[in-house]
């Protein structure tokens, strides 16, 4: 079922951009490379989460060989 993926994608696409603007200071330079979930910190968090899923055995190939 792809519903969790759709919900996650909707959050990443909408909330991550607005959250950076909401929590940044009024004089702060908004550099998307260094803030938000689509910047470096977000990639580190997502990588750690994927590593956790892989170590927990939740990420494995499908039984019929499809990706």
Short description:
By secondary structure, the protein is mostly helical. It is built from two helices and no strands. The mean pLDDT is about 75.
What class would the helix/strand composition place it in? mainly alpha
Radius of gyration: 16 Å
Which percent band covers the strand fraction? under 5%
Total strands: the figure is: 0
The largest pleated sheet is described as:
none
The general outline is elongated
Please report the distance between the alpha carbons of the first and last residues. Answer: 14 Å
Order of helices and strands: HH
Number of contiguous helices: 2
- State the helical fraction: 55-70%
Low-pLDDT regions: none
Overall pLDDT confidence: 77
List the helices and strands and how they pair.
Layout lengths: L2 H21 L16 H16 L12
What does this structure look like?
- The model has no long low-confidence stretch (mean pLDDT 77).
- This protein has 67 residues and is an all-alpha fold.
- The chain is built from 2 helices and no strands.
- The longest helix has 21 residues, at 3-23.
- Helix content is 55%, strand content 0%.
- It starts with a helix and ends in a 12-residue tail after the last helix.
- It is elongated and about 55 Å long.
Task: Output the keywords.
55% helix; 2 helices; mainly alpha; 67 residues; elongated
């Amino acid at each position: 079922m792809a519903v969790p993926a759709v919900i996650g994608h909707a959050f990443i696409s909408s909330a991550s951009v607005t959250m950076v603007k909401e929590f940044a200071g009024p004089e702060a330079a908004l550099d998307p490379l260094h803030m938000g979930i689509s910047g470096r910190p977000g990639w580190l968090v997502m990588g750690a989460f994927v590593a956790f899923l892989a170590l927990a055995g939740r990420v494995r190939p499908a039984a019929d060989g499809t990706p």
